[in-house]
Structure formats: structure tokens, C-alpha cells
Design brief:
Chains A, B: Keywords: DNA-binding, Transcription, Transcription regulation. Two copies of one chain form a homodimer. By secondary structure, chain A is mainly α. Chain A is built from five helices and two strands. Chain A binds a DNA duplex through helix 4.
DNA sequence: TATCTTAATCGTAATATTGCGATTAAAACA
DNA sequence: TGTTTTAATCGCAATATTACGATTAAGATA
């Protein structure tokens, strides 16, 4: 055990969970914060910004890329990362739909 | 290693990550979906709704309660859970602020 | 070509999460 | 009181995540 039973849940529930997981680490939030701040996406000085070693940052970048939140372009021997506009908006919509799905109800018991 | 280096990130970054982590599991999304659906929060039949054993569900409920997303009232020997309206709204605001913080920029390199 | 720079990948250790059987605690009920 | 119901907690096994040193691959540069 220890493995999530993804096949028993709906595709939407799994997607939402995966999406949340992608941003469920302060380093990944910090990376996204940085990419937003410097918006013309300077590359590997992300490593200088973060209190983490290069392989660790690389691993977090990979996860963000897998989630689709960022993309990277090769530029010489450096790599230039930035927010993926489309996925970003999509994520925002999915999360909004989820949170807007709840409307407080007076007859709730607690 | 293996432990997240929370102390090197800002409080906001950690809060956002913790928040995301709370909903980063399909079972927890499913629990929230269910609580939203039945809005007058029926209790432990959450277990019947989910493909998971009672202790597992109990553990997920505990995590959601820790995050503040749900609260529980004792009702006889059963316990009645429901969405915590205030935290829910707060989460929505925090996530919105994060996602709205990015505005697509033409001069992005990729 | 040899060297430097940049960033991915490999391998491994430490820790966290997920899941559940067994047990427990507390209230309901016979 | 003894039994049933409900849900938390304990203890453990399986797996996932986080972190990083060492290595590697590829382009830049001398």
C-alpha cells in the first residue's frame, strides 16, 4: 500500500488532485512566483533564488513541466523557462469551478 | 532528506503549498464533492461512497479537518461533517490571488 | 581540440503518504 | 449490564516524495 487508488475515482477528481499536487510544494510555488516576477523568463538563476541544490530544482522544474504549468526553451546551452499561459488559465478554471461548486447552506448541521 | 525545507520559504508560499496538499488526493476531492452534494452533511456514509476502508477515510477526514476545509459535529454516536464556509472562501481567495498574479506577457521568450 | 558552463539524470538516503487490519472509545439500545 | 453501532487511533507494510552528491550530455568558448 501507499499507492493512491486513482482508478476508483473519476477523471475529474484525479485531474484536480494531480493539479493540486503540482503546486503542493513551497519550492514549486517559489519557482512559479519567480517566473511570474521576472516575466521575460530568465533561465537557470532560479537555482540562485532558491535555497536548494541544482538537481533538486531541476526535479521540481520537471514536475511543473509534466503538469504543464511551465515550458522550457533551449537557448544556447542554457534553458529558458516560463509559465505556460494556456495550462495556467485551464488550471485556474478547474480550481474555480471546484471552489464555486460550494454555496453555503443555512440548513447545514454544523 | 525527504523532508520539505519549509523554513526557507515565505509564509505565504508555505501556506499555499499546504493548502494545495490538502486537496492533492482524489479521495479528499471525492469527500469534498460528496459534502457539497448532500449539503446538509450526512455523516459516516462517506465511507459507503468511497472505495476505501473506514480507517483510511477517517485519516483523510482528519487531514481535511486539519487544513480547516471541513468541520465535524458530534451527533449521538455518529459524527457529522461539513464544509467550513470561512476557510473555504479563504482558500478560494488565496488561490485566486496566486493565479491572478500572472498576466501573460508578449515579450516572454517561450 | 580541451575546457568551461549549464542543466539533466542516476543513485541513494531520509522522510512522508497511503492504505488497512486490529483495536479502542463512546454513545445507543436491548 | 451486555451488545451493537460509529468513528477514532495504533501499528505496520507498501509506495511516493524530497533532497543532494556524483555523473553525464551538450553547447559555448578558449
Amino acid at each position: 500500500m501507499g499507492a493512491t487508488k486513482t482508478d476508483h475515482f473519476t477523471e475529474r477528481q484525479n485531474q484536480l488532485a494531480t493539479l493540486a499536487k503540482a503546486i503542493a510544494h513551497p519550492a514549486r510555488i517559489a519557482i512559479l512566483d519567480y517566473l511570474i516576477k521576472v516575466d521575460s523568463c530568465i533561465c537557470g538563476d532560479i537555482v540562485n533564488e532558491l535555497p536548494l541544490a541544482q538537481p533538486t530544482v531541476s526535479q521540481h522544474l520537471k514536475e511543473l513541466k509534466n503538469a504543464g504549468l511551465i515550458k522550457g526553451d533551449i537557448e544556447g546551452n542554457a534553458i529558458c523557462y516560463c509559465i505556460d499561459e494556456n495550462t495556467w488559465k485551464q488550471f485556474q478554471d478547474i480550481l474555480n469551478a471546484f471552489f464555486n461548486g460550494y454555496t453555503p447552506n443555512a440548513k447545514s448541521c454544523c
